[in-house]
Amino acid sequence: MPCFSALCVCFVLLLSPALTQTFSEDIQVLVFLPQNNSYLFSNARVAPAIRYAQQKLETAGGAYSGFHFTIQFEDSDCLNDALYRLVDRSCGLKPDLILGPVCEYEAAAVVRLASHWNIPVISAGALAAGFSNKNSEFSHLTRIAPSYVKMAETFSAMFEHFTWRSALLVYQEDKEERNCYFTVEGIYHLMVDLHIKTYSFSRDERMDTEDILHNIEQTEVVIMCMPAEKIREIMLAAHRRRLTNGNHMFFNVELFNATSYGNGSWKKGDKYDNDAKKAYASLNTVTMLRTVKPEFENFSMEMNKSFKNSGFLDCNDCGSVNMFVEGFHDAMLLYAIALHEAMKNGFSKKNGTEVTSHMWNRTFEGIAGQVSMDANGDRNGDFSLMSMTNVEAGTYEVVANYFGVNGTFQLLPAFNTDHFTLKVKYKEHLEIPDKSCELGVSAMTGVIVGAVLGTAMLIGFYFFRKNYRITIERRTHTEECDTGKHRQLREDSIRSNLSAA
Ligand SMILES: *[C@@H]1O[C@H](CO)[C@@H](O)[C@H](O)[C@H]1NC(C)=O
Ligand SMILES: *[C@@H]1O[C@H](CO)[C@@H](O)[C@H](O)[C@H]1NC(C)=O
Ligand SMILES: *[C@@H]1O[C@H](CO)[C@@H](O)[C@H](O)[C@H]1NC(C)=O
Ligand SMILES: *[C@@H]1O[C@H](CO)[C@@H](O)[C@H](O)[C@H]1NC(C)=O
Ligand SMILES: *[C@@H]1O[C@H](CO)[C@@H](O)[C@H](O)[C@H]1NC(C)=O
Ligand SMILES: *[C@@H]1O[C@H](CO)[C@@H](O)[C@H](O)[C@H]1NC(C)=O
Ligand SMILES: *[C@@H]1O[C@H](CO)[C@@H](O)[C@H](O)[C@H]1NC(C)=O
Ligand SMILES: *[C@@H]1O[C@H](CO)[C@@H](O)[C@H](O)[C@H]1NC(C)=O
Question: How far does the signal peptide extend, from start to end residue (predicted)?
Answer without folding.
Answer: 1-22
